[in-house]
Design goal:
Elements: E1 11-15, H1 19-31, E2 35-39, H2 42-51, E3 56-60, H3 68-78, E4 83-88, H4 93-101, E5 106-109, H5 114-152, H6 156-170, E6 175-181, E7 188-195, E8 206-207, H7 209-216, E9 222-225, H8 227-230, E10 233-235, E11 244-252, E12 255-264, H9 273-330, H10 338-352, H11 357-369, H12 379-382, H13 390-396, H14 399-407, H15 417-421, H16 443-457, H17 469-479, H18 488-505
Parallel strand pairs: 1-2, 1-3, 3-4, 4-5
Antiparallel strand pairs: 6-7, 6-12, 8-10, 9-11, 11-12
Length: about 500
């Protein structure tokens, strides 16, 4: 707990039932520059300590009512920031040890020499000042660390946790709340709170925001004690006596975006001006970080919204193009359902290669889109029973390049282009449109090529009936290494055979 440093001269409270001793000590200590008050017993001393703060208490050991040792215990209970010196005319080692155990800084034997008393007081206050300087140094280091941690975080929740935890520790508060202004409603709402583990209640009352904002308008953070603090509450804390209240505005460019509030219910413990300044520094750093975190969260949300919109547009584009492809196939009884089957057979190969889910899905989509370039090609020219003319062959062979041109302007479908553009390339370099050789053909194109050929062979065409599965498989094996990737063909056949066995076991009818 921080020792209070007074702007004025150090304050000393003299407690003794003998008036003469009180007057002597008061006169001499006042001449030394101290502010001195005197009381006649322990009860009066406690009342005085609750009214004012003191640096040092000089108390007699034996007094009517409450003696010096009991007063030491009560002062410890108050958690007052004060050193205590015991005076006694019955000085023994045991008495001194007992006084030290109960928190006394030193003791003075009666009858005393006044210079001895002054020396003890000076030594005690010097120690207190050194202790206070060490505390301030630790606070400065701690405040710096908290400020740096706050400045580095873009998470609003983490920033709020750091602020409140820091205030609980550094100000020794019983409770801390942080209110933020809702940008949509303009109302201040409690966003976060922390209660000290030593506090027995989390109720902090309801603030009078009108009074607080009026106080802030004079550019003054609030530090108030006791009854003076209650004017800033619409509803004071229940069943708790508010000892001290500190409220700091969080400002960004002269706009109040929130308020940091610290509460003390501990008897005799009031926040100091030094602590108020420390909280002000923390609040200034926190305000900027909170605003940055809010802007970052807003940016993330807008980016998510934009991503969702873009994805929706991409899905609509994809659905539209697939719809065109389906419409194209539906107009021809021989190719109806061809793209869906190619997509399915392609997915079997992808699973056989143990490709990941995203890659498998891309292969399925490529299978669906592989013949999109046939839009604009007249099927009646291609579905005649006889052999195609050189002109008709040339027209047919334009569909891979047309597919590429259709998909290219659509960013979300660009990754499907190899399936449309390269499914008529041959392993030995004899295919079209570019005559790619071996592994220069994209994997997507090599997979779709096998699935496309298998489905074409096992489906009815205008110029022939569907071929049996075994015949189609034999043809794939014969063309492996020439038309098809020789490593993919066995994978494809194995996966198709497994699929057929599964369908037969389930009692489903499959083509022979």
């Amino acid at each position: 707990m921080e020792y209070q440093v007074h702007e004025e001269s150090p304050r000393v409270l003299v407690v003794d039932d003998e008036k003469v001793i009180r007057e002597i000590l008061s006169d001499f200590l006042t001449m030394e520059g101290y502010v001195v008050r005197t009381v006649e017993d322990g009860d009066a001393a406690l009342r005085e300590l609750e009214r004012r703060s003191y640096n040092l208490v000089i108390s007699d050991l034996k007094m009517p009512g409450m003696g010096g040792l009991e007063l030491l215990e009560k002062i410890a209970d108050l958690k007052a920031n004060v050193l205590t010196v015991i005076m006694t005319g019955f000085g023994t080692v045991e008495t001194a040890i007992e006084a030290m155990k109960k928190g006394a800084y030193d003791y003075i034997l009666k009858p005393f020499k006044i210079e001895e008393v002054v020396h003890v007081v000076e030594r005690g206050l010097d120690r207190q000042r050194l202790h206070a300087e060490n505390i301030r140094l630790k606070e400065a280091v701690s405040l710096y660390k908290i400020s740096e941690a706050i400045a580095e975080s873009l998470s609003l929740e983490k920033v709020l946790d750091l602020i409140l935890d820091g205030v609980l520790v550094e100000a020794q508060a019983d409770a801390v709340t942080l209110m933020l202004k809702d940008p949509r409603t303009g109302l201040f709402v409690e966003r976060s709170r922390k209660i000290s583990p030593l506090a027995d209640s989390g109720f902090t009352g309801e603030l009078n925001l009108t009074e607080l904002l009026e106080h802030y308008s004079h550019d003054k953070p609030l530090l108030a004690h006791g009854l003076k603090a209650l004017k800033f509450f619409a509803e004071p804390p229940k069943d708790r006596r508010l000892v001290s209240f500190c409220s700091i505005p969080l400002k960004v460019q002269d706009r109040v975006i929130g308020m940091l509030n610290a509460y003390s219910y501990t008897r005799g413990y009031k926040f100091t001006e030094g602590q108020r300044k420390m909280l002000s520094v923390l609040a200034n750093r926190a305000a900027v970080s909170i605003e940055n975190a809010r802007l970052y969260e807003d940016l993330v949300q807008k980016n998510c919204d934009l991503t969702t919109v873009n994805q929706s547009l991409a899905d609509n584009f994809r659905a539209t193009i697939i719809g065109f492809a389906h419409a194209l196939e539906e107009s021809d009884k021989y190719t109806r359902g061809h793209s869906e089957r190619v997509a399915f057979y392609s997915s079997l190969t992808a699973r056989g290669l143990t490709l990941g889910e995203p890659e498998t899905e891309r292969i399925v989509q490529a299978g669906l889109m592989h013949d999109i370039g046939k839009i604009g090609i007249r099927y009646e020219k291609l579905n005649k029973p006889g052999k195609l003319t050189p002109e008709e062959v040339a027209m047919f062979r334009t569909h891979p390049a047309k597919g590429k041109r259709i998909l290219e302007p659509i960013p979300s479908m660009a990754e499907l282009i190899p399936g449309a553009w390269c499914h008529h390339e041959n392993w030995d370099g004899s295919g079209y449109p570019r005559g790619l050789l071996g592994e220069n053909i994209p994997l997507l194109g090599r997979i779709v090529a096998i699935a496309d050929t298998y489905d074409a062979m096992t489906s009815d065409r205008s110029y022939r009936k569907a071929l049996p599965h075994d015949v189609a498989v034999a043809e794939l094996e014969r063309c492996a290494g020439a038309q098809f990737d020789p490593e993919l063909v066995p994978q494809f056949i194995r996966m198709v055979d497994d699929h057929r066995k599964t369908q037969i076991a389930a009692g489903n009818e499959i083509p022979r």
